[in-house]
Design brief:
By secondary structure, the protein is an alpha/beta fold. The chain is built from eleven helices and 15 strands.
Length: about 375
């Protein structure tokens, strides 16, 4: 994955003249903000006005490294005193809903990190708050801005694949259990790899499919490595196995109203050859692969495998300016949100159903 395409770079520019700045504050100033700050500081139409976190060390970083003096331990106090126009909610998953609702009630546009919340009901409350207060609500789904996703989605829109019948999604790490934050604590995160990294591949696949309505899902989860000490060399050694309550591996299958099926495999730790980040699909007119981007179809009486003659790969870090620019342009110039709250709700319904099925022994459960 390398640089953003020229088309994507164009979308990272201001939508109009820079005649004023969006006053943006952060709720949660931890690890993910390192991906937000460089692009936001380069945007001429954004001013970072405040940071909120319960960790005093992080607030010290806001003052010293971010050069932002307004720091708070209470987001409600920050909203009252600073009155930002927009907030980025970058807290652990269990603290997404309430700050987002409170910000919307204060008249702020909201960008919330993925996954949108802990449950579909929480997502709906966030959507309702945004609608009630006429503010924007965007979910941090950056992979729909990826050049591969955009290419395949355009091809699907042009009818090249026909009716997509089957998707296979994989977000697998051989040994990549996070050794920071609260990623291993289910009561704060909602789950492990499925809700943390599986969510990315599910959301870009669902987006590619045209966002069909999910109606049922089944799933299973297993924990066999993360809750034990390990002396095996790994990507991030020294995770806190004593507080580890999430799964190492999750497998799910989703049925859609259209009749299509989506399978998802996601792991923090699995005995596999190498890490995998991909989706493949089959349609009645053609199929394809996300990485590398490929299309499989029939042409002139021959089965054809085709690849782009030139497509710029998109580095993970290069995706953040794209999603942030979309949010800023939406706030300042009413540009359409490309990852709205409704997309977050649909994905959350899928995640919730897979976990509910796993808790019920793997039997299929309905999605409301």
């Amino acid at each position: 994955m390398a640089q953003a395409s020229s088309e994507s770079l164009a979308s990272a520019k201001p939508a109009g003249p820079v005649d004023r700045q969006l006053r943006l504050a952060f709720i949660g100033c931890g690890g993910v903000t390192k991906f937000y700050l460089p692009p936001l500081k380069s945007f001429p139409d954004v001013e970072i006005v405040a940071g909120c976190d319960i960790n005093p060390d992080r607030l010290a970083d806001v003052k010293n490294d971010w050069k932002v003096d307004a720091t708070f331990a209470d987001w409600k106090e920050m909203l009252r005193e600073v009155k930002p126009e927009a907030v980025a909610v970058c807290t652990p998953n269990g603290l997404h809903m309430q700050p987002a609702i409170d910000a919307a009630e204060a008249g702020c546009h909201v960008l919330v990190e993925k996954p949108m919340a802990m449950t579909p009901a929480e997502c709906q409350r966030m959507i309702d708050a945004a609608r009630r207060n006429n503010v924007k609500l965007q979910v941090g789904f950056q992979y729909r801005f990826h050049a591969h996703t955009e290419f395949l989605t355009r091809a699907a829109g042009a009818g090249e694949f026909g009716n997509v019948m089957f998707m296979k999604c994989r977000a697998l790490r051989r040994r990549g259990i996070p050794n920071w934050g609260v990623f291993g604590q289910k009561h704060l995160q909602g789950g492990g790899p499925m809700i943390d990294i599986g969510v990315h591949v599910i959301e870009m696949a669902h987006y590619f499919m045209g966002s069909p309505k999910p109606v049922a899902a089944s799933g299973n989860t297993w924990t066999y490595l993360g809750d034990k000490p390990s002396d095996v060399a790994s990507q991030w050694p020294g995770w806190d196995y004593k507080t580890y309550t999430v799964e190492d591996l999750a497998i799910g299958q989703v049925r859609f109203e259209s009749g299509a099926l989506l399978q998802i495999e996601s792991s923090f730790a699995a005995h596999i050859k190498e890490d995998v980040w991909n989706f493949t699909f089959m349609g009645d007119k053609g199929g394809g692969n996300w990485d590398p981007p490929e299309v499989y179809t029939d042409r002139a009486g021959t089965m054809i495998n085709s690849t782009p003659g030139w497509i710029t790969n998109t580095d993970f870090l290069a995706l953040f300016p794209l999603k942030l620019r979309n949010f800023v342009n939406a706030c300042l110039h009413d540009e359409p949100i490309r990852a709205p709250g409704e997309a977050g709700l649909a994905v959350q319904k899928i995640l919730d159903a897979i976990y509910r099925s796993a808790a019920a022994g793997g039997k299929e459960v309905a999605i409301d």
